[in-house]
Amino acid sequence: MGSGTPVKGARKRIGIAASVLRAAGFGEASTGIVLGTGLGGLVQHLEVEREMAYTEIPHFPEATVEFHEGRLLQGMLDGHRVVVMQGRFHHYEGWSLQEVVFPVQVLHALGVRRLLLSNAAGAIQPGFPKGSLMLLTDHVDLLPGTPLIGPNDPELGRRFPDMGRAYDPGLNALFRQAATDLGIVLQEGVYAAVKGPNLETPAEYRMLRTLGANAVGMSTVPEVIACAHLGLPCAAVSVLTDACDPDHLEPVDIADIIATAGRAEPLLVALFREVVKKMEGAV
Ligand code: HPA
Predict the structure, then answer these.
(1) Best of 65, 124, 128, 218 to mutate for ligand 1, by most ligand atoms within 8 A of CB?
(2) Contact 221, 242 (CB under 8 A)
(3) Which domains does the chain have, with CATH numbers?
(4) Atom of ligand 1 at shortest distance to CA of 252?
(5) How much distance in Å is there from the Cα of 13 to the middle of ligand 1?
(6) What tens digit of pLDDT does each residue of 194-222 get?
(7) pTM of the model as a whole
(8) Secondary structure of residue 186 in the 3-state scheme
């Protein structure tokens, strides 16, 4: 984070980024979408109207993981105007949690009314197969910190945000309905966020299971906390890319995880498109 009063500084940086984007024609979308690892195929269905590289947006972190393209896109997806983050930021890349959530705060400043997120995660729940999708109903935050640390800016949100309905029940109902209509099996469960970038040990997988987690990953939770702070309804879906079975743990490599995410991509893309279609008419 930069210098100056942290509270006012954050809001000022959000305002600067939002005004640069507004000047470039952003700010007309009511739905924000964050594309996670290997899930970028949604943009092929987007009629892009505006785009800006993260490097062009003041105060945006720059995506560093090579399979993430760092661009903000605005356009029509199945008749609904959306703003899409192509590439997201992870704490393990060295960004502070405040930096990780900065784009979400900017999307909120631009007027989005809901945020849909995707990620790749490991399956902790034995019955959840590799390649399947899981709707997040709740989370366990094991990240080393929170994006809300420090003085609170009441203009952005409350000091003590409620996390009882962090995953919006209305949006989750829409995801369930969309999955049913498409005949897609959508698991549901609790996502544990860990710091990464190393994967977990068998003992850690046992711990996560004991904690009530059904999946584990290295993203999403900071953004969901920022949404709770902003009062921005959100929902998230994981692609389960590997089975985290502590007693039969296969060596996992990131290429395999990305390949599995890629194979599940058409399902996730179809699901997100169907959810967006169901929002048609909603503002
Ligand atoms: N842990 C284990 N498996 C995973 C993860 C993780 O954080 N992300 C994707 N697959």
Answers:
(1) 218
(2) no
(3) 6-279 (3.40.50.1580)
(4) 3
(5) 32
(6) 999 999 999 999 999 999 999 999 999 99
(7) 0.93
(8) strand
